[in-house]
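notes to self, project folder thing:

trying the whole complex as one job this time. last attempt i did each chain seperately and stitching them together was a nightmare. two parts in total, labels are on each line so i dont mix them up again. if this works i'll redo the older ones the same way
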Amino acid sequence: MPLRDKAAITGVGETAYSRNSGQSVLALQMRASLAAIADAGLTPKDIDGIIPYGTSGVVAEDFATNFGIPDLRFSATTPMGGASCVAAVQCAVAVIAGGICRHVLIPLGRNGASESRIGSRVRQLPQFRMVGEFEMPVGALAPAQLYAPMARRHMELYGTTSRQFGEIAVTTRRHAGLHGNAMMTSPITIEDHQASRMIADPLRLLDCSLESDGAVAVIVSAAERARDLKKRPVYVSGVGEGHPDSPSTITQRPDLTTFGTAKAAPRAFAMAGMTPADIDVAEIYDCFTFNVLCQIEDLGFCKKGEGGAFVENGALGLGGRLPVNTHGGLLSQAHMAGLNHIVELARQLRGEGGATQVPDAEIGLVTGYGDMGDGAVAIMRRG
Amino acid sequence: MSEGAYAKPLPEPSRDTKPYWDALNEGRLVIQQCAACGKLRHYPRPVCDACYSMDATWRQVSGRGRVHSWTVAHHPFHPGFKTELPYLLATVDLEEGVRMIAQLRSVAPEAIAIGLPVEVAFERATDEVTLPVFRKAG
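result (full assembly):
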């Protein structure tokens, strides 16, 4: 496998997460990036590739300018909404394995609570052109409304319940309360979930992720460089992206209950030479609770339709059969488009997980999900 | 905004999609059809994914279909929809084999189910734009 273990996560950085950062998005991203570079034991001028988040308004040139990078060799964006960050890892590994770069910076930051909220952001994306013309005018405007028919179809076909969605919200909140850098820390119960107001049936308020201010950055380095850096490397053993059938609109998708994740996962597992049984901890993109449940199926942890039963009885909690979103995820830590999930996986595999550390976590998985069902999967192992 | 002005998002038809919107404005539902192999496709776009022909015609369809899935919108993600909450959005399999999403009128949320027969109706938004809606089939 040409890309297996060719690159590693060597540095991670985050700002505090809040509803009002009081800083520009540009400053937030620089702050997180400097933290990630320092975490790796590098200097900013060591960065020779940058893959920014396509819609944050901050571009590779901003980093070259602020850091005085003399010879940036590569920049690109991976416009897959919430799947962008894991797809960016795939892109970074490929350009590293191809000999173009040594140290690639993946930054993301937003004032998603205080400045630009989700409803106004998505309408400007070219990936939403068809939705903008044919679905928004009839009232299908926001991700909650676009994704709810997938959740409803899953419930009708497989008997999945709102209480099973609630299991995911409750467990994720518990992790956020232990983590130390999360926006929502008060414990919730299934009854709280059931009592939370309906947003787009069957999705309730506590099925929905947060709007957040903050920034995150990750450094991906060539494996032979990673061994000499400050922190224990976290190797990228397998990675893949997958675009669903009917990628421009969910409405026309033959099977509403399958994401692009189902195409990405077999590629990532094959590259890693691993199976779902090898995974000690999983950071699964959680824009909505349903998306976690559906990805657990698409990733192969259980069969299609069995995700509801899989998540019951605390299965996703610490000590459960598959600890998921040990940082509190987008539901309770912050909505950083899943780059915070990559940071958390790296910390888990370094043994830096603190109060939510999964004991002896050696192999983990992180996913992204975005736009109309794009999926991306990375499998990592501690070095 | 003047009284009675339309306050919700409107489509901006392109050269590829204008015939669809023009037909709706005349009270007809048309679906794009490949002129070479006959495959129907929705939403309108330049290329047939079966034979790659870029020649297409517009076929008037029955407007009849069955509910494939749905949501009930309780939160207004756009202020223009605030007064009509809650509203039902149905994903519908048309008899001819493509899907549409539109508001479903005249059906209580408790009465909706996969397979419920529905038919299209037309609601004028502005002089230029008419939107499709579904009603329970009569």
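what i see at first glance: Chain A has a mean pLDDT of 96.
need to look closer tmrw
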